[in-house]
């Protein structure tokens, strides 16, 4: 029994890891296609039909490029930076409930790597560790642009993590749990948390853009000011790791948004579909719905990047400290008052 359990978890980890990499890889293709559509261009159309092999061509190019390590850099930290960024990006999927339990014969298989009762705290711990990859890479490069970029990234992440953490408190008051599986399970049908926490969702969404260094919050790597920032000295697959980590972070952020506020694998008519498809295929259909929600958020990330111009750094910090944090505190107070009045009556 223990061996079967280990094999099941190992296979699930491999599948989730592979899906994360494939989604990140084809997010680069989708981003270029979305940008081309918004700018009335064609985008990649040479490698394969409609350019669908472009991510593979980019990956081969990254592997084949010459690897350069600056002479005056800290070699070990220079190598550690992109690896840490990639590692922290990938481990965030460990507590995501991808669907209901699948019934195969008399065996029940959960579609979740691990269910911890403090899943939200785990997610925030992983998010807070991700910036160390940027910090280490920027400092170890021994380049003034990289150093400035890493300082910007650190201050930006600290500022927006506070607002993000405060926005989640309102959600915790409503759901009364820190387990992601329980939070998703409570949103059965269309009882989505976005209807109970609309302000918290907006704050969390804005902070997600900042935490993933996506435009208009990409102050850590803005080419016009910092010449690609912390990645300026990187080449070959180390540069690829940083780029992949950003897209995996976007995928994980979209997954968390869909799970916390839009019901995850829940959808209207789940009971009817369970009777129609049975205990094996119905959970997989819910997983498909979950991924459709995730892809919708990924498209939104890309849409915003190619629509809204980048903030100035003072505007970025003012929005975090003078805008989002006060609104997040107000959301906590309002939620607590509403829950107290509801319980009393």
From TrEMBL:
<keyword id="KW-0874">Quinone</keyword>
<keyword id="KW-0830">Ubiquinone</keyword>
<keyword id="KW-0560">Oxidoreductase</keyword>
<dbReference type="Pfam" id="PF00146">
    <property type="entry name" value="NADHdh"/>
</dbReference>
<comment type="similarity">
    <text>Belongs to the complex I subunit 1 family.</text>
</comment>
<keyword id="KW-0472">Membrane</keyword>
<comment type="function">
    <text>NDH-1 shuttles electrons from NADH, via FMN and iron-sulfur (Fe-S) centers, to quinones in the respiratory chain. The immediate electron acceptor for the enzyme in this species is believed to be ubiquinone. Couples the redox reaction to proton translocation (for every two electrons transferred, four hydrogen ions are translocated across the cytoplasmic membrane), and thus conserves the redox energy in a proton gradient. This subunit may bind ubiquinone.</text>
</comment>
<dbReference type="InterPro" id="IPR001694">
    <property type="entry name" value="NADH_UbQ_OxRdtase_su1/FPO"/>
</dbReference>
<keyword id="KW-0812">Transmembrane</keyword>
<comment type="subunit">
    <text>NDH-1 is composed of 14 different subunits. Subunits NuoA, H, J, K, L, M, N constitute the membrane sector of the complex.</text>
</comment>
<feature type="transmembrane region" description="Helical">
    <location>
        <begin position="76"/>
        <end position="99"/>
    </location>
</feature>
<feature type="transmembrane region" description="Helical">
    <location>
        <begin position="192"/>
        <end position="210"/>
    </location>
</feature>
<keyword id="KW-0520">NAD</keyword>
<dbReference type="InterPro" id="IPR018086">
    <property type="entry name" value="NADH_UbQ_OxRdtase_su1_CS"/>
</dbReference>
<keyword id="KW-1278">Translocase</keyword>
<dbReference type="GO" id="GO:0050136">
    <property type="term" value="F:NADH dehydrogenase (quinone) (non-electrogenic) activity"/>
</dbReference>
<feature type="transmembrane region" description="Helical">
    <location>
        <begin position="162"/>
        <end position="180"/>
    </location>
</feature>
<feature type="transmembrane region" description="Helical">
    <location>
        <begin position="324"/>
        <end position="342"/>
    </location>
</feature>
<feature type="transmembrane region" description="Helical">
    <location>
        <begin position="239"/>
        <end position="262"/>
    </location>
</feature>
<keyword id="KW-1133">Transmembrane helix</keyword>
<feature type="transmembrane region" description="Helical">
    <location>
        <begin position="7"/>
        <end position="27"/>
    </location>
</feature>
<keyword id="KW-1003">Cell membrane</keyword>
<feature type="transmembrane region" description="Helical">
    <location>
        <begin position="119"/>
        <end position="141"/>
    </location>
</feature>
<protein>
    <recommendedName>
        <fullName>NADH-quinone oxidoreductase subunit H</fullName>
        <ecNumber>7.1.1.-</ecNumber>
    </recommendedName>
</protein>
<feature type="transmembrane region" description="Helical">
    <location>
        <begin position="282"/>
        <end position="304"/>
    </location>
</feature>
């Amino acid at each position: 029994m223990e061996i079967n359990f280990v094999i099941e978890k190992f296979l699930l980890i491999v599948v989730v890891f592979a899906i994360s990499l494939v989604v990140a890889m084809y997010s680069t293709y989708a981003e270029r296609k979305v940008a081309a559509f918004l700018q009335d261009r064609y985008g990649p159309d040479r490698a394969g039909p409609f350019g669908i092999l472009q991510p593979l061509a980019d990956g081969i190019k990254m592997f084949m490029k010459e690897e350069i390590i600056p002479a005056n850099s800290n070699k070990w930290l220079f190598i550690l930076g992109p690896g840490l960024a990639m590692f922290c990006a990938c481990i965030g999927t460990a507590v995501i409930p991808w669907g209901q339990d699948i019934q195969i014969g008399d065996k029940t298989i959960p579609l979740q790597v691990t269910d911890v009762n403090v899943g939200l705290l785990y997610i925030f711990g992983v998010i807070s560790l991700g910036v160390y990859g940027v910090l280490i890479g920027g400092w170890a490069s021994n380049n003034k642009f990289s150093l400035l970029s890493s300082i910007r990234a650190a201050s930006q992440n600290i500022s927006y993590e506070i607002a993000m953490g405060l926005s989640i408190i309102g959600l915790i008051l409503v759901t009364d749990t820190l387990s992601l599986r329980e939070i998703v399970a409570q949103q059965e049908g269309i009882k989505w948390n976005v209807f109970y926490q609309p302000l918290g969702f907006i704050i969390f969404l804005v902070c997600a853009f900042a935490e993933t260094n996506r435009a208009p919050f990409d102050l850590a790597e803005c080419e016009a000011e910092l010449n690609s920032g912390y990645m300026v000295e990187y080449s070959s697959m180390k540069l690829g790791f940083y780029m992949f980590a950003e897209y995996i972070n976007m995928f994980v952020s979209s997954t968390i948004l869909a799970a916390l506020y839009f019901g995850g694998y829940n959808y209207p008519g789940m009971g009817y579909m369970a009777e129609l498809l049975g205990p094996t295929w119905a959970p997989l259909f819910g997983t498909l719905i979950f991924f459709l929600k995730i892809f919708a958020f990924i498209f939104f990330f890309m849409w915003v990047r190619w629509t809204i111009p980048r903030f100035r750094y003072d505007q970025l910090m003012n929005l975090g400290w003078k805008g989002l944090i006060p609104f997040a505190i107000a959301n906590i107070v309002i939620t607590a008052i509403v829950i107290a009045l509801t319980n009393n009556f």
